[in-house]
Design a protein that fits this description.
Number of strands of chain A: 9
Helix content of chain B: 25-40%
Number of helices of chain B: 8
Family (chain A): Belongs to the class-I fumarase family.
Helix content of chain A: 25-40%
Structural class of chain A: alpha/beta
Order of helices and strands of chain B: EHHHEEHEEEEHEHEHHEEEE
Number of domains of chain B: 2
CATH architecture of the largest domain in chain A: Alpha-Beta Barrel
Structural class of chain B: alpha/beta
CATH superfamily of the largest domain in chain A: Fe-S hydro-lyase, tartrate dehydratase beta-type, catalytic domain
Distance between the termini of chain B: 22 Å
CATH topology of the largest domain in chain A: fumarase
Low-confidence stretches of chain A: none
Number of domains of chain A: 2
Keywords (chain A): Lyase
InterPro entries (chain A): Fe-S_hydro-lyase_TtdB-typ_cat, Fe-S_hydroAse_TtdB_cat_sf
Mean pLDDT of chain A: 96
Mean pLDDT of chain B: 96
Oligomer: heterodimer
Number of helices of chain A: 5
Order of helices and strands of chain A: EEHEEEHEHEHEEH
CATH class of the largest domain in chain A: Alpha Beta
Strand order of the largest sheet of chain B: 6-2-7-12-13
Shape of chain B: globular
Low-confidence stretches of chain B: none
Distance between the termini of chain A: 49 Å
Organism (chain A): Nocardiopsis flavescens
Radius of gyration of chain B: 19 Å
Pfam families (chain A): Fumerase_C
Radius of gyration of chain A: 20 Å
Amino acid sequence: MREHHLTLPLTPGITDDVLAGDIVHLSGEVVMSIGLPTFRRLRQELHDGVPPPLDLRGAALMHISSSGRRLDDGTHELDYINTTTTTRFDDVMPDLIRGYGLSVVGGKGGLGEESVRAMRETGTIYLSIPGGGATLLSSAVREVVEVHWTEYIWQFQLIKTRFEELGPLTVGIDAHGTSLYSDLKSKAENRLPAIRAALSARREADLRARP
Amino acid sequence: MAISYELLKTVTSQMYARSLRHVPVEAQRALSKASADEPDPLARRTLDLMIDSAQQAQQRDHLLCSDSGIPTYAFKIGTRVDFEGDVKAAVRDGFHELAATSDPPLLKHVTNPLTNERGYEGKDMPIMSFDLIDGADHVEIVCSPKALGTGRWSTSEILISPTLQEIEEFVLDAVVRAGSQACPPMIVGVGIGGTFEHAAHIAKEAILRPMREEAANPIVRDMEERLRDAINATGFGPMGTGGRTTAMAVHVNYSSGHGFTPVAVNFNCWIDRRYGVRIGNDGTVTHDV
C-alpha cells in the first residue's frame, strides 16, 4: 500500500504507477454528479456529437454527491459532499471513459468488467470514496468552479469543484485492469464451498451442544 | 396525562436529525474491535477513518453521509398511553419542518416510483409501522432513515419447509450478492417465518435490535454467531476493498408460520443508522435508547 498525492489534470502516464490498493489524496478540479439521468444524457450527447457543457477530455468525472446552492452574486457554495454506489452507472461508464479519455472516475462499490476494460485502454483509475465520510471529506472542498444542467436537482447537476487533498481515497481499480472488487468477488465465490462446509460443521456441533 | 401532537412532532423530527449525525456507541465499539483485529493495513486504515468520521460528526454536529435516506419510523405503543392530537400527522409535519429548516439541508431523496420525481414529500411518507405493548404506559419509537447503498440489497424468498442449512445459505448468498457495495462492515438482519410481509417486518426489527441486546433463543444466538463468522470469511471487508470484517453483527428474528417459510434479509451500513426514544405518558422523553 503506497500513498500518492495527485494533482489534476494528471500528467499522462502517471496512473501507471498508481496500483489497486494504494491510497490517493486528490487535488484539482473534479466534475461531480450522482444523477442517472445526467450520465445517460452525457452518453447520449456524446453519441449524437453534442459537445458537453464543460470540457471532459481527460477529466476526473466522479460520482460525488453534494448539497449546495447558487448564491445571489452568481457564485456557488457547498455544504457537504459524499459518494454513491457506482455499479448502477455500469451501462454508461464504458462509453464515457473511452469517449472522453477520463483520467479518474470513482465513488463506492466499483464498476463492472466493461468499465474496467475501458479504463485499461485509457489509463483511468477508479478511486473509492469512503461512504459515511462526509465529515472528513467535505473539508477538502475549496471552490465550486462551474455548474451546468441546473434543470436537475442539485446533486444531479454537473458541478465542477476544486479540491485540495481530497482523501484518503483507495484505488479500487487501477489502469492495468486490476479491480479489488472483481478480485474480492471471485475470491469470495471460490471460498463459498469451504465456507458452507465450515458453516454446516459448526451448525451440527452447535445443535449437538444444545439438545 | 397524554402524549401531545407537538411533543411527537418535535421528538420525531429531532430523532431524524440526530440519526444522521450519530453512530450508535455499540457500532463504534465494534468498529474499534474490528480495527484492532485487522492485520491488513488498508482495511485498518479504512476502519480508523470510519471511527474518526463517527467521532467528528458527533463533535461537530455534521452529517455522516450525503444520502440522508427516506424517513422510516417504527412505533411500539403502550396500551395505557393516551394521545392528544394526531400521531401520523405529527410525524409527517415534523419531517416536513426538518426538511424545510435543516442546517445543513437534506438532499431530496423521496422519489415517486411512477415518475422518478424527487422531493421531500410523497405517498406514504414518512413510512411508519405500528405495534402495541400490552399494559405499558409509554411509546417506543425507532427512526432509521433508509438510504440507497444498503436499501437496494434487501431480499427475500419463500422456502418450503427449509432446513437450517438452506436458510443460512440463503443469507450467505444474499451477502455475496451485495458484495462490496453496501458500505461494510454491516449489520445483517434476518427474518425467518410467518408470512411474506411479516418476515420482512421482523428482519427490519432484527436490524434495529441494539447490538448490546442478545437474542433470547439459544438456537438463534448460535446461528447469529456462525453466520457472522461465515460472512466475515468472504473477505469483502471495510468499504468492500478487502479485510476481515464484512459484518459487525448478524441479528436473526423468527416467527412461527406454515410449511412455507419466508426468509428476508436486510442490511444496515457501518453507520448503523438507528435512533430510538421512549416517551412516557407523562411526556418524559428518554433519548438514544
